[in-house]
TrEMBL record:
InterPro entries: CCB3/YggT. It comes from Staphylococcus ratti. This is YggT family protein. The chain crosses the membrane at residues 12-30, 59-80. Belongs to the YggT family.
Length: 96
């Protein structure tokens, strides 16, 4: 029973990270569309994704017109997701 609960929690966390990643892809592509980020949806998404992207933008300056910080943000998010999987596997092998 406890193993199922832990599994459900980790599945939910992985699902949330996946949804956040897809949303961030949409938000980044919105910068290619004129006026998309100024719309109500764009402003709502900015409140969700800018707090995560901003530290990467401070560390990695844009190269001309190209902002590479979202790529690093995706890599960090992917590493976080892989870390969750590793923690889950560790918990399952150690305690169940």
């Amino acid at each position: 029973m406890a193993e199922q609960t832990v599994g459900m929690i980790f599945e939910f966390l992985l699902f949330a990270v996946r949804i956040y990643t897809y949303g961030m892809i949409v938000y980044i592509f919105m910068s290619w569309l004129p006026g998309a980020r100024e719309s109500a949806i764009g402003q709502f998404m900015a409140k969700i994704y800018e707090p995560y992207l901003e530290p990467f933008r401070r560390i990695i300056p844009p190269l001309g017109m190209i902002d590479l910080s979202p790529i690093v943000a995706f890599i960090v998010l992917n590493l976080f997701q892989r870390g969750l999987v590793a923690i889950y596997q560790l918990i399952v092998t150690q305690f169940y």
